[in-house]
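Researcher: We're teaching a course module on how sequence relates to structure. For the next exercise, students receive a sequence and then see the predicted structure as tokens, so they can try to spot secondary structure elements on their own. Here is the exercise chain.
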Amino acid sequence: MLVSFENLPDTARVWVYTASRFLSKEEMKLVSESLSHFMETWQSHGKELRASFQLFENRFVIIAADEQYNELSGCGIDKSLHVLQLLEQELGISFTDKSIVIFEKDGKPLPLVFNKIKQAIEQDIVNVDTFFYNTLVSNKGEFQTHFKLKVSDGWVKKFLPTTIFIKD
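Model: And here is the predicted structure for the students to work with:
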């Protein structure tokens, strides 16, 4: 059953998918309609799920399910992934490429392939104060508090030189 994102508990499990490019208004509408239809009938082992989604910044698809209501199986997760894969084919876009990390530079998104992050830091394109979108959040509470972080506050800091953190 589709519920509003706000009505899910902070413990609701989330999956964040990054679009390989910005979605147009028409594409956002199509994604929203497809996910709404899917969420209305989403089940796990024959039991309905309380679920929701958000489209964020024309770039991210956030899917959430309340596992306190009914447990979500691996097959149930695969069903949601299948919907995204169908949308990928229809729109000619990727949602499932986990190698893309979106940073925010001068108020604009800066997508970087994972293996280029260290180089971007060395060239001062990205620094400790640059924001990035942490797609590794695992529940709604984390999404609300740790989705957009400074590089120095998230997993990306492992690419920073250790001398940045040494105080006099």
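Model: If you want an answer key for the exercise: The beta strands are 13-18, 43-44, 47-48, 51-56, 60-65, 100-105, 108-113, 131-133, 148-150. The chain has two domains: 5-91, 100-139+148-165.
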